[in-house]
């Protein structure tokens, strides 16, 4: 299966695990420069906007499935 998880990341490339709904965590966060999508199959992709990642992932999962269905 191609279950995708999209995680925001910082300008230095590290993943953002900050819960920005918490004020203390929002203070610590250096900001979000983009998002990284990690597929359950190991495929990854980065983009600024999560909506783009959803599109990339759709193409990926359709292509990976091939003509099997
Ligand atoms: Zn995949
Ligand atoms: Zn952060």
Bound molecules: zinc ion
> Approximately what portion of the residues adopt beta-strand conformation?
15-25%
Order of helices and strands: EHEEH
Number of helices: 2
Quaternary structure state of the chains depicted? single chain
Helix content: 25-40%
Average pLDDT level? 92
Question: How many strands in all?
Answer: 3
| Gross geometry | elongated
User: What's the number of domains?
Assistant: 1
Q: Compute the CA-based radius of gyration.
A: 14 Å
- Which class do the helix and strand fractions yield? alpha+beta
Terminus-to-terminus distance: 13 Å
Strand adjacency order, main sheet = 1-2-3
Largest pleated sheet: 3 strands, antiparallel
Low-confidence stretches: none
Please give a quick description of this structure.
The protein is α+β, with helices and mostly antiparallel strands. Helices cover 32% and strands 23% of the residues.
Question: Key terms for this structure?
Answer:
alpha+beta; binds zinc ion; 69 residues; single chain; 2 helices
Structure description:
By secondary structure, the chain is of the alpha+beta class. The protein has one domain (4-65). Helix content is 32%, strand content 23%. The protein contains two helices and three strands. A three-stranded antiparallel beta sheet has the order 1-2-3, covered by helices on one side. A hairpin with a 4-residue loop joins strand 2 and strand 3 (44-47). The longest helix is centred in the last third of the chain and has 16 residues, at 50-65. It is elongated and about 45 Å long. The mean pLDDT is 92. One zinc ion (ZN) binds at residues 10, 16, 18, 29.
């Amino acid at each position: 299966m191609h279950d995708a998880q999209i995680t925001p990341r910082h300008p230095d490339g590290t993943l953002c695990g900050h819960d920005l709904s918490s004020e203390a965590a929002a203070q610590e966060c250096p900001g979000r420069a983009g998002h990284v999508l990690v597929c359950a199959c190991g495929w990854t992709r980065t983009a600024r906007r999560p909506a783009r990642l959803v599109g990339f992932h759709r193409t990926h999962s359709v292509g990976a499935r091939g003509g099997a269905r």
